[in-house]
Amino acid sequence: MMLIKTSLHFDMEPIIEQVKNLGHFKRSLLLNETEGNILSGYYTTKKEYVNTPLGEVLKQLGDIGEARLLKLDPEDVYTAHTDPDDRYHLSIITTDYSYIADLQANTLQHLPVDGYIWYMDTSIMHSAVNLGGGMERIHLNVRVRMPQIKGSYYSITFDDNNLVDWKQLLYNTIMGYINLMIKEKQITGFERISDREIHINCSPNVLQCIRDRALQGGFESVIKECN
After folding, report:
1. Overall pTM surpassing 0.85 (yes/no)
2. Do the Cβ atoms of 49 and 18 come closer than 8 Å?
3. What residues contact residue 165 under an 8 Å CB cut-off, 6+ apart?
């Protein structure tokens, strides 16, 4: 199951009021910050959100990764993708026709504004769409913090061979697999250095699987062992 409702619940009235008072933002608004890697660094809530309704949600979630408000305008849709890191979702402003799409099960799920945190398995191919006429959808989207690199590691750089839409192809080829291997403790450290380079603690077998999957997607891999 891609989306699971947790028992963590919040009073939505003050959260909605805070979000409405933030004013206009484009597609995303960052609520916390790190001095480390975007996926594995330790995050602290930005000072303007400490001791606010949104800040309390982040505090209750504990040791988390990047936290953002994500907005889908009417008729907006995300391309199909997987992610290396799972997510927490809190629906804040929505429409009756706003959905998260599980593209493996071919199902649509609407998250109501009911105060519950939802846990999302992003190893599953997914998307999101707002079909509500004239109204935006805003979710709190929080990354599950990934394990940090320790000791020796592999650096993997991917050559896209001039592929069209290479970033989506790369993510769809390997990121879901990386997500699953982290859950199974086969990957014990992960950092995204750039869109084309990652650092990883893993076994040679997992490394070979990543190389093979990348090659199937049309990508060459340059692998270096680093200390």
Report:
1. yes
2. no
3. none
Q: Which residue has the tokens 């003050």?
A: 14
Tokens 């963590």 belong to residue: 8
Q: How many Å apart are CA 209 and CA 214, to the nearest integer?
A: 8
Q: State the CB neighbour count (10 A cutoff) for residue 42.
A: 14
The pLDDT tens digits for 62-112 are 999 999 999 999 999 999 999 999 999 999 999 999 999 999 999 999 999
Q: Going from the N-terminus, what domains does the chain have, and what CATH number goes with each? A: 3-143 (2.60.120.330), 153-226 (3.30.70.1130)
Q: In this structure, what token pair is assigned to residue 196?
A: 């084309």
Facing residues of 45 across strands?
32
